[in-house]
Write a structure and sequence with these properties.
This protein is of the alpha+beta class and 336 residues long. The chain is built from eleven helices and nine strands.
């Protein structure tokens, strides 16, 4: 079922792949339990298919659950934990989704402190009790002096209204020209130097030689940057130490079941993505999308991993492909 789903995804039939992967998830949850590493792998693939079909919410849930199961069922530092986290991070970054959302966080519009909710409520309730008490106790005095105070308050209110009216009239006269005049002059000012430069054919050294290296350094909007493979190696063990390459225990030929890593060091002039496609008996088993940062120096190092159980023994292959699908490298091995 999983092999058929991978084959459908490789052929671009994501609807069929999604249907088969959902059936596989239901079967694995029944037979293997809800915290098995194989279920995490299937959920990761289902999330990938949902992402391709535009089901962003389901894809996010799949990526998050796959990583949660990997963390709960595998030892720290296991490649599947790193791979599932990498997929989740790239998915969230591509769509501006927060990686981790706190359970209770006041919105930015709420001027609430970081204290507990109980403290503000007590503070809010206390002042009204204090304000009301003096009025009740001193009520007789207030009644006696009420006419005089009301006259004073009325005089103050009338004076305040007169001041506010004249103040608003003065403000209206002074503020009216500013919003009209200033924004228009500011919006017109920037285009003038640009137009002046564009209409002068004489000073060619500024416009032409300056921008000429820029377009050549960056790819056109419709094309992916070129990727050069500096190192591609299949490993049975990988330590993220050393320079320029990480320490890899090479793996080739006939191999026992276990976890294998595909290590790559790539050179590119701007950020891009590559894919590690794992095949079993000629069918796509797993696809890992990896981000590659601009690395004009010694290259950018990254890897993916897959776990081959005894029941999945057979002929295996892993491919390195560019974002546009171009095959950059591949490694074949046999698991008995």
């Amino acid at each position: 079922m999983i092999d058929a789903a991978q084959q459908a995804a490789a052929a671009g039939d994501y609807d069929a792949a999604e249907r088969l992967l959902r059936d596989a998830v239901a079967t694995q949850e029944t037979t293997l339990g809800s915290s098995h590493p194989d279920l995490a792998t299937t959920l990761n693939n289902l999330a990938f298919v949902c992402e391709r079909t535009g089901k962003v919410d389901e894809a996010e849930r799949g990526y998050r659950r796959a990583h949660a199961i990997a963390v709960a069922s595998l030892s720290p530092g296991h490649p599947l934990i790193k791979t599932s986290l990498s997929n989740l991070v790239e998915f969230c970054e591509a769509r501006g989704i927060p990686l981790w959302t706190p359970p209770e966080t006041p919105t930015e519009d709420e001027p609430l402190p970081d204290d507990d909710d109980v403290a503000p409520s007590e503070i809010d309730v206390a002042p009204p009790a204090i304000d009301v008490a003096p009025e009740i106790v001193r009520a007789p005095e207030v009644v006696r002096r009420l006419p005089l105070r009301m006259m004073a308050v009325a005089a103050v209110v009338v004076a305040a209204i007169v001041v506010m009216v004249f103040a608003r009239q003065g403000q209206g006269r002074s503020d009216t020209p500013q919003p009209v005049a200033q924004p228009r002059t500011e919006s017109v000012a920037p285009p003038e130097p640009a137009d002046a430069k564009s209409t002068r054919p004489g000073p060619g050294p500024v416009p032409s030689p300056g921008p000429s290296p820029g377009p050549s350094a960056e790819p056109s909007p419709g094309r992916e940057p070129a990727v050069t493979v500096l190192k591609a190696q299949l490993c049975s063990g990988l330590e993220k130490t050393g320079s320029p390459d990480w320490q890899c225990v090479p793996a080739s030929g006939d191999l026992p079941p276990g976890t294998y890593m595909f290590y790559t060091r790539l050179l590119t002039t701007s950020e891009t993505r590559v894919e590690h496609r794992w095949y079993r008996d000629g069918r796509v088993h797993q696809t890992m999308r990896l981000r590659v940062s601009a690395s004009p120096g010694s290259g950018y190092r990254t890897f993916s991993a897959t776990t081959v159980s005894p029941e999945r023994a057979g002929e295996w292959k892993v491919e390195l492909r560019a974002a546009d699908g171009t095959l950059l490298d591949e490694k074949s091995f046999l698991v008995r």
